[in-house]
Amino acid sequence: MALIDLLPKHLFTTRGWGLLASGAGSMLLAQIMGRRDLLALGILLVVLPLVSLAGVRILKPRFQVFREFHPSSVETSSTATVRLAVARTGAAAGPVIMEEQLPPRFGEPPAFRFPARAASGGTSRYEYHLRSGKRGQFRIGPVTAEFCDPFGLSLHRHEIDDGDILTVTPAAVELPATGLAGARGNDGVTATRIRANPSDDDVMTREYRHGDPMRRVHWAATARHGELMVRQEESVTTPEATIIMDQRYSAFVSGSAAVFGPAHEDAFELVSSDNFEWVVTAAMSISAHLADRNYSLRFLDAAGHPAFRASRSAPYPETEEFSGLGGLQSIAESLAAIQLSGPRHVHGERGRKEAAVVEGAEAPFDDHLMDKLAAHRLRGPVLALLGNMPLSEARALAPAAGYGANAFALVVTDHPHHVQPVIEALKLGGWRAVAVSSRTDLPAAWAGFDQGEILAAAAAAMDVRRGAAVPR
């Protein structure tokens, strides 16, 4: 390895190091030979690079940096285009080498020369692309500029801006059309009113369609026609859905479960786990699925508070109701940096209660959550995205099913067969509950709810054809 390669690269150029070496050699020869002219030359050769080094640090050029992301927030595994505009605001100097600093996950930082060949009006423009397979918020930048003095002896490298935050949102998985939300019209609305006290003769009925809830089956008409018939309702309103999103550390990290967290004091790393990442993807996918059907959405955490109030990427942390495309975008941005929170070492029911007292918060699934659900009673489905929970919490949550037109729960755990008592407790309360793991295919889990309803409808139709007693 050449000696020049061992010298620091951020102080002097090769020319500068050469002058320093020559100056040191001249002074050494002057000492040996007693030559004052060599001594003067040596001093000049040493002082010149040092003066240049001081000059580039005191009289460094100034720049302005403008950075834009297109789109402003990007989904995981999608490409974002970064556009930079750099303008010099100080005294003109020679060419400058610039480099955009990036988090390691984005690969090698892009480097470019200033001014660019196509610079116009004193502003140089650059463009490059980024892609992240992980959600979150990432600092892009700052741009560092490396320049030298007019003689090309010394170097200086410094940051010329503060960087900007790129938000990477979870990508939605396309879910199959199911009857989880009840019957939908062409415009995505749901019927809500039936004529008062209709008789078997004057009620309007139609054949059962995929997605019609069983509670609207007209049993007398079903018996006459030999196939499932439902009541035809008259008026419509925009449907609502409530999503309960558990985000407690103790619910998603236990035993040997892998957990991600901040490393090397990186403030942008998230505390998460494979199971919680599955829940985040499910929340985004279900939101997109229901928003496409004109649902308004409400997000709550396990205690009944706005689900995104602790997410640093949330545009409106205290908001819990979302509607339209703008609402869906807010949900996506809020989910970008949501992470696990709460006590990290909670053992048993007593430990959970003590933790709640220490945190100054309500216990999960208590009256505060029930009051929130009661305020929107029967206006649409309730969906719960849950982690590991003790049987006592499942029993506390079970009655919440009565506040929704339908109630569905996904319990994400490393060992689905170990949580069957929890699943049974939820089912006794009226939930349609399924245990899944982070390896479970989300569309399959979503469709699994609907398969149960179809089987129930088919069984009811068979009972009617066989002359079974028709409930009134």
Layout: helices, strands, pairs:
Elements: H1 14-33, H2 36-58, E1 63-70, E2 73-75, E3 79-88, E4 96-100, E5 111-114, E6 123-131, E7 136-140, E8 143-148, E9 155-159, E10 164-169, E11 190-193, E12 205-207, H3 219-225, E13 229-231, E14 235-237, E15 240-245, H4 249-252, E16 259-260, E17 272-273, H5 274-291, E18 296-300, E19 321-322, H6 324-336, H7 348-359, H8 367-374, E20 382-386, H9 391-397, E21 407-412, H10 420-428, E22 432-436, H11 442-465
Parallel strand pairs: 2-10, 15-18, 15-20, 20-21, 21-22
Antiparallel strand pairs: 1-3, 3-6, 4-5, 4-8, 7-10, 8-9, 11-14, 12-13, 16-17, 18-19
Please, could you describe this protein's structure?
The chain is 31% helix and 23% strand. The chain is of the alpha/beta class and 472 residues long. The longest helix is centred in the C-terminal third of the chain and has 24 residues, at 442-465. The model is unreliable at 182-202, 356-360 and 453-472 (pLDDT under 50). Keywords: Membrane, Transmembrane, Transmembrane helix. InterPro entries: DUF58.
How confident overall, as mean pLDDT?
Answer: 82
Low-pLDDT stretches are 182-202, 356-360, 453-472
Instruction: Round the Cα radius of gyration to an integer and report it.
Output: 33 Å
Overall helicity: 25-40%
Which strand-content bin applies to the residues? 15-25%
Biggest sheet features: 6 strands, mixed
Class by alpha and beta content: alpha/beta
Trace the largest sheet across and list its strands: 19-18-15-20-21-22
**Span between N and C termini?**
92 Å
- Count helical runs: 11
Strand tally is 22
Shape: elongated
Keywords: Membrane, Transmembrane, Transmembrane helix
Organism: Arthrobacter ramosus
Pfam families: DUF58 (PF01882)
Protein name: DUF58 domain-containing protein
